[in-house]
Amino acid sequence: MTESSPRLTNLPAWKKLQAHYDEISSLHMRELFANQPNRFEEFSITLDSLFLDYSKNRINPKTIQLLTELARECRVPEAINSMFKGEKINTTEDREVLHTALRSDIDKPFIIASGDDVMPEIRAELEKMKRFCDAVHSGENTGHTGKTFTSIVNIGIGGSDLGPHMVVNALKFYQKDLDIHFVSNVDDADIAETLKNLNPETTLFIVSSKTFTTWETLTNAHSARDWFLQSGANQTALSKHFVAVSSNIPAATAFGITEENIFEFWDWVGGRYSLWSAIGLSIALAVGFDRFSELLAGANSMDKHFREVPLERNIPVILALLGIWYTNFFGADTQAIIPYDQYLQYLPAYLQQADMESNGKHVTKGGEEVDYSTGPIIWGTTGTNGQHAYFQLLHQGTRLIPVDFIAPVESLNNIGIHHRLLIANFLAQTEALVRGKTRAEARATLEKSGLSEKKIEEILPHKVFPGNQPTNTLFYQKLTPHNLGTLIAMYEHKIYVQGVIWDINSFDQWGVELGKKLARVIYDELGDGIPVRTHGQSTRGLINYFKEKSPKKS
Ligand code: G6Q
Fold first, then answer.
1. How many whole angstroms separate alpha carbon 240 and alpha carbon 102?
2. Is 447 a known active-site residue?
3. Is 512 in the pocket of ligand 1 (CB under 6 A)?
4. What is the per-residue pLDDT for 554?
5. DSSP 324-336
6. Rounded to 5°, angle at Cα 538 from 534 and 543
């Protein structure tokens, strides 16, 4: 929608959805299943080895019809084309959004709205990454004393950390004989604990920063450089142990990194969408360039699906619309992501950034305050761990929390009964969340246990489970680089579709930019023993408390 388009809440489909909500929101999914014998077939979609079952949602066929109508009124198909055509859809930063070009068919051009083909520069950078990875793996590139690299440390934060960190961990099964570390936090514990067990002669640092101005990353990079030089290495040796991934080549060169060791990426790749670019160097080093290419190919497969398949059968679109249904009509505040795959333990944290930084916005693209909720709070951890913790609230709390349950059909490790038990839990939880347990069912169980009528009456309310909690179930065959690429791209596109419907810019991050500036003033103020007189009384009090209690330098 543009400035002159009608507001979202005035659209005909929105109004119809409001009326439809009034009709069906009180229905239990038990009824919805009973009324629709082919519900599982009708509400599931397959793409390659990815299978989505969305039948356990508080919807009927009319809901999907109206939600897709809303998507059309919000011009979602046109917005999908605009992204792939390289239009400047990141309006507040006046940039194209081209992470899909990074994983598009390598031998075909990718012409953007300006008429340029972006593929030659992408190809050149990929080739450079490949050469570098191969040289490290073969031992052709060594440390300054001739020893083979054994450890890689990626120094970056936000988009320059969360994506590669999540993927490297997810693909651990495929990892080469190198240990990969990620340092992101400016808290010195992060770098100290990482460097503690490393050998400067065999450690390679990747300083990952698009801007090469991020304070946390540069502070960590300087400490890593000091540590390296204190080991007796000289400035020339530095060039063998430090590489950079950045779009700010002068700043990376000024840090001491030689130009041939700087991997470039471009303004049109947003930080949180950058794992497909040279920001993925740590991934390619961890699992080899070929597997990195498979990751890209998996994402490409989802891109094609997203671009070509009608809204009604389009996985990211359906997930996005279900999210809109719960956020804007049921008033859900959060969305849980629960992978039953230990390798995906960082997926929820990664999606927190991808989703909340993209859609945590309060004004439309035209600058008007929205009168509806936008991006939900994303949270979650791996199953089965969550079951022994916060699942209580999902089963018997008072909130509606949509959950994505994600699991592989096949285990990569196949030890004993583990995988079957994991999947039994996975399926049992979604079943319990949809069905719940009625008063009558709970009573029957209690009666079987031989309790007195008085005791049964007392305990009964506590044994009732309302159920009717919406879940999506996602199966993939097994965790391969390809399947992981498909899964990540699915969420990226879901986020974009929601942003289009909410009429917000999913690709800027002014809140993060603010954070980058705020600390500067206080940093200076913390540097001397003189109490500050500025700020509000709480911040002033806290600054002065900290200064007074800090150990005095002798
Ligand atoms: C992502 C954000 C943000 C960014 C970091 C790191 O979309 O813009 O998370 O990735 O602030 O920025 P640099 O890569 O420039 O250091």
1. 27
2. no
3. yes
4. 64
5. HIIIIIS---EEE
6. 60
